[in-house]
Amino acid sequence: MSISVADTHGATRRLPAWLDPSLIILGLVGLFLAFLVLLPFGWLAVFSLTDEQGTFSFENFYELADPALFLGPFITTLGIAFGVGILACALAVPLAWLVSRTDVPLRRTLRGLIMTSFITPPFLGAVAWVLLAAPNSGLINQYYRIIFGAGPYDRFVNIFTAEGIIFVMASYAFPYVFVLAANTLDRMPHDMEEASAILGGSRWHTLRRVTFPMVLPALLAGFLIAFLQAMTQFGTPAILALPAGFHVLTTKIWSLFQFPPKTHLAAACAIPLLLVTIVLLRSEKWLLGRRGFTMIGGKTGAPQLTALGIWRYPALLAALFVIIVTVVLPNLVLIRASMLRTVSDSWSLDTITWDNVRLVFGLTHTWTTLENTLLVGLVAASLGTVFAVLIAYLNARRAVPGHRFLSFLATAPAAVPGIVLGVALFIGYTRPPFQLYGTLWILLLAFLTIEMPPAYQQLQAAFRGLNPELEDASRILGAGRLKSLTSIVAPLLKSSVAATWCFVFIGTIRELSATILLTTSNTKLVSVLIYDLNENGELGGIAVLGLVLMAITAIVVIAANRIANVGNVAAGR
Amino acid sequence: MVVATLTRRQALATALATPLVSIASAARAQPTPVAITDELIAAAKKEGKVSHYTSDDLTVATNIGKMFEAKYPGITFQLERSGAERNYQRISQEYASAIHAVDVVSTSDLSHFTTWKKANLILPYMVAEAAAWAADARDPDGFYTKQYFTLMVPGYNTRLVKPEDAPKFWTDLLDPKWKGKIVKAHPGYSGTIMTGTFTLARALGWEYFEKLSKQLVMQVQSAIDPPQRVAQGERAVMADSAENSSIRVRDSGAPLALFYPPEGVPVIPVGNAVMAKAPRPNAARLLVHFLLSAQAQQVYVNSGAHSFSPDTRLPANRAPLATTKLLHANPDEVAREAENIKKRYTQYFAI
Asked: A114, exposed or middle or buried, with CB in 10 Å at 0-12, 13-18, 19+?
């Protein structure tokens, strides 16, 4: 390496190609990515096409026709996922429009409040909604009966239904849609809306004919994200659907791992989930490809905000209502439950207790699981970010031949639902040559694979906004590729890198679909401990553990952003 | 050292007599009860840790662990508490990947011992603490000892159900008035419910479960969960539960009443055994001594279970079992039926 730095440009060229360190790194990263994706999925394919004796057969796929095994849960899953997609968009898009394009008061606060909901893992939200809206003991139903004088079994809402599941999943998916829609609206040039207004279009006409079509791609992407999240989530349906006596596909796949495990059948069940995801992602490209008009306009000023007039405060109230119901209320009820002996008790000095705290921290595994969660989260976030930066860089600068293949490998896992990955990793790493089951490594691999596509896509976008001239200057002055990457590119991308890091870290905290199949007693994570406690009915204990988990997440995220900002100050920016 | 020779002898016997196992175990005399020795304690402390996979009530198991750590400082107690069926799956999954993490297992589904015995996964070990207990308190070959027993009982919320309206028979739960008001635990998770389902299906026929499944029951997993849901008022009635856990919830002041149907109540013995591949064989044995000691036995009794130990005292507020008709299950038959039970249950209750 020192040769290439010290030598002239020409000398580097005469060296054999494989000596270029970036090529070696490319090779290693490429191999690792290929290994990450191909090994487990090779096994998944093999298992789905063999029986317990290992002989080739389509028997597993024939069995999928059984409505109790596959078809029923599959249809339920698609229905729920569709509902979540619609509801998440219906909640997120108006909110995004309000905070991005109107003069609604407290815009920054609203944005911030929605962002905080990222740190609540969906399965924790599901438990919170059991506390709020279980048909008889749920707080909302208790108050409903008191206020309206209804009978003891009358209810206002029942969370143990498909509708309840849709609502809870949409509550935790809509922030993703919101971010997408708000970013698009923020960046959208306002010239076209102005043009439409000048040409005599009414406000409503402009919104419908100009603004909406421009937001449509983001809307579609948002719908897909919500749909895919809902289709592949394990925790929420396990907590809400099983008590109601029905399965979705993820819970069914999980149940196939109960004794005696039917791993081959589980592999076969996972394949359709994989196919649906791939088809959906392809169809998004196809739809956008046809609608893909570019917003020409270049650099324009800050968009003109729509004046809401007398609707300013009603709009604020509506936005606050959505946020209070989906973000504030579940967290409040967790705080409440953490202090009560029986979660349906009323709140008074007699019922408040430290029992739940004592229960949680009296468990022999609590500290180990907290350590494991933090360790795996930090390592996955750091490694994942490094990989994503490298691949995004190599791809953005077309630095090496084969960068497209790398890009493909980094985005491919997006088509892989967590539980499918769990099945694949379980099969792939419980046998030679790589016996990683029972170690934290298998969880690290799972998280790296799951989080690689979003991390890579975020950084890819960031690289696109970075002018290559700066790096070229440094390379001309003699710096190697690695040197210009670390001392020119990295500082400029600091905030994007920090955001990606946080995104991956939070992703590991929220994950349960793959984790549930991959942990053992010594490699438990908090998410699994919470799930265990739920099977035990220890809702108060879950509340305590969940609050601790969210506090840790918040601290880590704030610290990561502080560190990134301190660097900025030091660099004099 | 006693422990080491035992392990070696066992290994040798396994190696030599694999095809003759059934004959050998039939003819084998019960091992002699062993008392705690200073060597055992010292060796256990050297191992420094013990891992207990158990289906015991979470709170009780945690307390027992703390008492064990207090009595034997230097040995860390690690608890893996889950349903007996879940632990069984976990152990088989871990063992399939050559992960030997568990030292001692306690399960509310004795049929697991039948399977583990055949597969040589557990060791015969009889402790002096239980030597004087009734003969049916242990495995005839000494592979496991019954830690305590409980019952699978139904119950109701006393605020939501008046005593005169309360169900009395198992079949009362099939009354349309309880539709949507029942909570029930799952035999695929809980050993208590697995054993109880086997027993009740014999006593009442599978039609009982088929009809019960039409009652829109709320399906939870652990036998510890129904009393909590009923105490919260989430459901008025529970179709089953582990009696000891229900007693613990009731004694904490919750509006919960249990009833003992005259058709008979399934007995749920909970046994413990030392794993043959226990990574800490001495600490494992020491823990079994402790679980069967008078000190631990009194804790089980205080928290609602029934002990085989003659040295325990029933708390003043608890009536002895005399009036209840008890139904026993044969673990070997449960082992044969387990798959069928899970299948039929899933067929009726959909999950």
From this structure: buried
pLDDT digits (tens, 9 = 90+) for B47-80: 999 999 999 999 899 999 999 999 999 999 999 9
Element (H, E) at B275: strand B265-275
CB of A67 less than 8 A from some CB of B: no
Q: How confident is the model at residue A9 (pLDDT cuts 50, 70, 90)?
A: very low
Residue A176 forms contact with B (CB below 8 Å): no
Tell the CATH topology of B2-148+269-302: D-Maltodextrin-Binding Protein; domain 2 (3.40.190)
Q: Which residue of chain A is at minimal alpha-carbon distance from B228?
A: A537
Task: Show residues of chain B in contact with A437, CB under 8 Å.
Answer: 97, 99
Q: Do A247 and B233 touch (CB under 8 A)?
A: no
Between chains, do B58 and A135 touch, taking CB under 8 Å as contact? Answer: no
Distance between CA A411 and CA A80 in Å, rounded? 26
Which superfamily does CATH assign the domain made up of A21-51+354-512+534-543 to?
Answer: MetI-like (1.10.3720.10)
What CATH number has the domain spanning A58-327? 1.10.3720.10
Q: Does A68 touch chain B (CB under 8 A)?
A: yes
| pLDDT tens digit sequence for A344-366 | 777 777 778 888 999 999 888 89
ipTM: 0.88
Nearest CA to A513 out of A434, A417, A431 is that of: A417
> A433 versus B24: which is more confidently predicted?
A433
Task: Indicate the burial class of A454 (C-beta count within 10 angstroms; 0-12, 13-18, 19 or more).
Answer: buried
Q: Which residues of A touch B233 (CB under 8 A)?
A: 136-137, 344
Contact A260 B78 (CB under 8 A): no
The rounded Cα B335 to chain-centroid distance in angstroms is 15
Q: Which two tokens stand for residue A203?
A: 């406000």
Q: Nearest-CA distance from B225 to chain A in Å?
A: 5
Given A247, A438, A521, which is nearest B351 (Cβ)? A247
pLDDT, one tens digit per residue, over A436-470 is: 888 999 999 999 988 988 898 888 878 877 777 77
Q: Pairing relation of β-strands B256-258 and B155-157?
A: antiparallel
C-alpha A316/C-alpha A324 separation (Å) is 12
Asked if the Cβ–Cβ distance from B229 to A137 is below 8 Å, we say yes
